[in-house]
Amino acid sequence: MCSFKKIEVALALALTSALSLAAVGCKTKTGDAGGKPAAGGSYRFAFVTNNSSDFWNIGEKGMHKAEKELGVTVQMFRPLKGEVADQQRYLEDIMTQGYDGVVISPINPDAMTGLFERVGAKMPLVTTDSDAPKSPRKTYVGTNNVEAGKVAGNTALAALSAAHITKGKVALFVGRIDMQNAIERKQGLDETLGKAPGFEMLPVFLDHADRALAKKNVEDALARYPDLVLALGIWSYNGPCLADAVRVSNRKDKPIVVVFDEEEETLKAVRDGIISATIVQRPFEFGYQAVKALKDVRDGKTLPPFIDTGILVVKKDNLDQFWTQLRELKK
Q1: Residues 6+ away with beta carbon under 8 Å from 277
Q2: Is residue 322 domain-resident?
Q3: Domain range spanning residue 9?
C-alpha cells in the first residue's frame, strides 16, 4: 500500500508539472488589470476543481460551451485526490502563468484564505460548487447548499414515512466535513432530519474522497448498526458507493438511501430502487456560468454575490426524462 501511495503521489506531481508546462506553451497574450485583453488576444482562465470525480466531466462540458460562445480559453485543473495541497500548488502556478482569472471549488476555504487574498489581488476569483465566503471572490456560482440539505432531509423523511419507518439511526457519508458545501448541506439536514423525533444522527462517516474507503464506511455502518434506517451520501461518488454496498448486503431490512448528484451508477440505482432519490445539481451550469462570470468581471460588469444554478430531486418517476437530458448534455 505504501508503494502504491508513493506511485500515486509521483503521478500527481508529474501531471501538475505537465499541465503547468502545457499552460506556458499555449499562453495567449493578455491585457492589463484594467480588463480588456491585448490586441489579437483573448481572456485565458483557469478552472480548479475539488477532485477528479465524474461530476466534473459534466462541468467541463459547460466550460467548453462557454469557451466557444464567449471567445475565451479555459484550462481545467483536477486534483487526483481531494487535497488542499494540490489546490494550493495549482493556484501558485496559475498566479505566475499570466491567467486572467480563476474559478475554484475550494476544498478548505478557511485554510486557503491567505492564498485567496493573494490570488484576488492579481486576478478575478470566482467560486463554484462550494463557496469561500471570507475570500475576495467576485461571486459564488452553484447550489444553495443549506436549502439543498433541507430538500434532501425532507425527501428522506417522506421516503421513511412511505415505508412506515418512524425510528432508527441515520448515517451521513461524505469526503470532508470542513468543505463549505458539506458544512451547509449538513446544516440543512440537521434542521430537518435532526429535529425529527425517533431518529438518531450518527457521527459523520468521512472518506477523504477515497472511493474504496467510502464503500467500506457503508459496509461498516450496515454491519455495526442493525437499526440503521437511512443512509445519506452528500458528495457525488457517495451514491455509487452506497448503492454497491447496499446491493450486496445480506441485511433483510436495508436502509432508505438518499444521495446527491447524477453519476451513472447512482441513476442506475435509482432505476433499480436501491436509491430512493438523488438531489441533482447543475454541474454543466457550474462550468458555463462560472466562466461567464469571470468574463463579465473582466469586461467591467458588476455581479451579484451568488448565482443560483438550482437543484432537482430525481426519483423513479422522473428518471427517464432527466437521464435523456443528461445524455444530451454529455454529447
Answers
A1: 155, 156, 159, 258, 259, 270, 313, 314, 315
A2: no
A3: 2-143+283-309
Q: In this structure, are 57 and 166 located in the same domain?
A: no
3 state DSSP class of 203: coil
| Residue 86 sits in the same domain as residue 191 | no
Tell whether 67 and 189 lie within a shared domain. Answer: no
Asked whether residue 328 is assigned to any structural domain, the reply reads: no
Contact 47, 55 (CB under 8 A): no
Tell me the pLDDT tens digit for each residue of 105-149. Answer: 999 999 999 999 999 999 999 999 999 999 999 999 999 999 999
- The answer to whether 266 and 298 are in contact (CB under 8 A) is no
pLDDT at 218: 98
CA distances from 192 to 39, 60, 153, 162, 186 (A): 55, 33, 5, 17, 10
DSSP state of 81: S
CB atoms within 10 A of CB 22: 11
Element (H, E) at 277: strand 277-280
